[in-house]
Amino acid sequence: MKEVQSGVQVEVAYTLRADGPEGEELESCNEETPFVFTVGQEEALEAFEAALIGKRVGEPFEIQIACDDAYGDETDDAVVALPKSTFMVDGKLDEEVMQVGEVVPMSDEEGQEIVGVVVEVEVEFVHVDFNHPLAG
Question: pLDDT tens digits, residue range 11-62?
Fold first, then answer.
């Protein structure tokens, strides 16, 4: 059987849980819809890739990844108050997107897509949380 090594494309079925093996299920991929990526191409968490190195095809395993090695802690700095004018589309405010809980895709200064969640709406500002959903 082949061993996983850097540069190899892998298909992984997994269950991600908060706070260890008995914790709340956060997401999962099964064998019918696996997570497919190339090891060493920074397509997955570094700690996850490191745990796969040397594993054989079909070999089950469990790992725990510390918050710092995943998406870090939630930070207050990642919650940003944006002027409502940010949500103008064709000269009109997009009221649908300015609702608490709405997911808003945006771009940072480098043009990278970032995704936030509306957490508060005020008269002039919309507060959007850009922490990674799995942070903390």
Answer: 999 998 888 888 888 889 999 999 999 999 999 999 999 999 999 988 998 8
Those residues with Cβ within 8 angstroms of residue 8's Cβ, 6 or more apart along the chain or in another chain:
2, 38, 39
Band of residue 67 on the pLDDT scale cut at 50, 70, 90 = confident
**Count of structural domains, the chain:** 2
Within the chain, residue ranges assigned H as helices are 46-52
DSSP-assigned letters across all residues of 64-126:
---GGGTT----GGGEEEEEGGGGEETTEE-TTTSSTT-EEEEE-TTS-EEEEEEEEE-SSEE
Range of the domain at 96: 76-129
Tokens of 25: 């299920």
Helix, coil or strand: residue 56: strand
> For the segment 1-16, what is each residue's pLDDT rounded down to a tens digit?
689 999 999 999 999 8
Q: Is residue 63 part of a domain?
A: yes
